[in-house]
From TrEMBL:
<protein>
    <submittedName>
        <fullName>GDP-mannose pyrophosphorylase</fullName>
    </submittedName>
</protein>
<dbReference type="Pfam" id="PF25087">
    <property type="entry name" value="GMPPB_C"/>
</dbReference>
<dbReference type="InterPro" id="IPR029044">
    <property type="entry name" value="Nucleotide-diphossugar_trans"/>
</dbReference>
<feature type="domain" description="Nucleotidyl transferase">
    <location>
        <begin position="4"/>
        <end position="237"/>
    </location>
</feature>
<feature type="domain" description="Mannose-1-phosphate guanyltransferase C-terminal">
    <location>
        <begin position="252"/>
        <end position="355"/>
    </location>
</feature>
<dbReference type="Pfam" id="PF00483">
    <property type="entry name" value="NTP_transferase"/>
</dbReference>
<dbReference type="InterPro" id="IPR005835">
    <property type="entry name" value="NTP_transferase_dom"/>
</dbReference>
<comment type="similarity">
    <text>Belongs to the transferase hexapeptide repeat family.</text>
</comment>
<dbReference type="InterPro" id="IPR050486">
    <property type="entry name" value="Mannose-1P_guanyltransferase"/>
</dbReference>
<dbReference type="InterPro" id="IPR056729">
    <property type="entry name" value="GMPPB_C"/>
</dbReference>
């Protein structure tokens, strides 16, 4: 049996002001809390036991996922009193693992949407005999990630977290946030204090001559660090670009959840999700967007690549592009909201308050 640790800590503040009291892993993507996709994908790859290592708003996970049996999993929860960092969080749950010292243990960052072939990563780990194996992906701008150069055999030669200088950017291969650790390696991480696996554990292991193996591929991969990425990821799940067994219903251009109301002439495209109890009124056009539970899009509004929070309302003829509207906010009629704007939860924007276009 393969077991896994899912890291779902961190501050999770980057989705604010969309969600004040909902940690990012619980924000819905393609109709279910994002974390469901990671859990379901792990299960589909044969993982049966998962320990959730949490530090922030941890109390929301267990009431929702329970013992994991609904997903065919045995789930356990461990909450840190103070955030222990990625390495500290892994070490902190070691006592919950059932694996023997040489067994492979999977570890996942909790904010990644990917088509990773999990079984292939474990197979790479076993055939290479590595101490730790890492999923790597290539990105255009690697500065926000951990850089992982490898030799021609795939063996990791360095780990450079968030490079600061141009000289440090030695590769476009980055840490994609999924690892296989040999169980006994987890036990070497110091206990009881914050440890960063990226800044401390990996560099120390390399310095000590340990074998870290990289598996580079070009499968779907997205870090959900920003609301824009979150909306993109949700749309990709709905359209089937990002594979997940947890998407409710068939993949297609739109996902309308039960109890949502959509006017017959409203147009929903580009992987749009309409949440439970949400309303899309006549003539509205919604593309590539996520409309959360109970939100209302009034007649003739045009929503593109945006996240509309739970219970929020977007007024008639208002256009919203690349924006985040917080839970419970009311945006009046005939407004124009553009790229990057975030409306706070419960804020009220009167009719005809904002526009970008010039006078006709
Ligand atoms: N339990 C717990 N405790 N989890 C934590 C803690 C903590 O103190 N700190 C971070 N995590 C979790 C986060 O919730 C996330 O799921 C994961 O560990 C990675 O932390 P982030 O804060 O999201 O790191 P990052 O996105 O800046 O960088 C990481 O991910 C990149 C890929 O997206 C690094 O692993 C990079 O090397 C990597 O390239
Ligand atoms: Mg992250």
């Amino acid at each position: 049996m393969t077991e896994a640790i899912l890291l779902v800590g961190g501050k999770g503040t980057r989705l604010r002001p969309l969600t004040v009291n909902t940690p990012k892993p619980m924000v819905h993507a393609a109709g279910v809390p994002f974390l469901t996709h990671q859990l379901a994908r792990a299960r589909a790859a044969g993982v049966e036991h998962i320990v959730l290592a949490t530090s922030y708003l941890a109390e929301v996970f267990e009431p929702h996922f329970g013992d994991g049996s609904a997903l065919g999993l045995h789930l356990e929860y461990v909450t840190e009193e103070e955030p222990l960092g990625t390495g500290g969080a892994i070490r902190n749950v070691a006592s919950r693992l059932h694996s023997g010292p040489d067994d492979p243990v999977l570890i996942f960052n909790g904010d990644i949407l990917t088509g990773l072939d999990i079984r292939a990563l474990v197979a790479t780990h076993e055939s290479s005999g590595a101490d730790v194996s890492l999923h790597l992906t290539r990105v255009e701008d690697p500065r926000a990630f951990g850089l992982v150069p490898t030799d021609p055999t795939g063996r990791v030669t360095a780990f450079l977290e968030k490079p600061q200088t141009p000289e440090e950017i030695v590769t476009d291969q980055i840490n994609a946030g999924a690892y296989v650790f040999r169980r006994s390696v987890i036990d070497t991480i110091p206990a009881g204090r914050p440890v960063s696996v990226e800044r401390e554990t990996f560099p120390d292991l390399l310095a000590a001559g340990a074998h870290l193996q990289g598996m580079v591929d070009s499968t779907y991969w997205l870090d959900l660090g920003t609301p824009q990425a979150f909306v993109r990821g949700s749309a990709d799940l709905v359209q089937g670009r990002a594979p997940s067994p947890a998407v409710p219903g068939r993949c297609g251009d739109r996902l309308v959840l039960p109890t949502a109301t959509v006017a017959p002439d409203a147009k929903l495209t580009g992987g749009t999700v309409v949440g439970e109890g949400a309303t899309i009124e006549a003539g509205a056009r919604v593309s590539g967007s996520t409309i959360l539970t109970g939100a209302t899009i009034e007649a003739g509004a045009v929503i593109t690549d945006s996240l509309i929070g739970a219970g929020a309302r977007v007024g008639a003829r208002t256009t919203v592009t690349g924006a985040v509207i917080g839970d419970g906010a009311h945006v009046g009629a005939d407004n124009e909201l553009r790229d990057g704007v975030r409306v706070w939860c419960d804020a009220i924007l009167p009719n005809r308050s904002l526009r970008f276009s010039s006078d006709q």
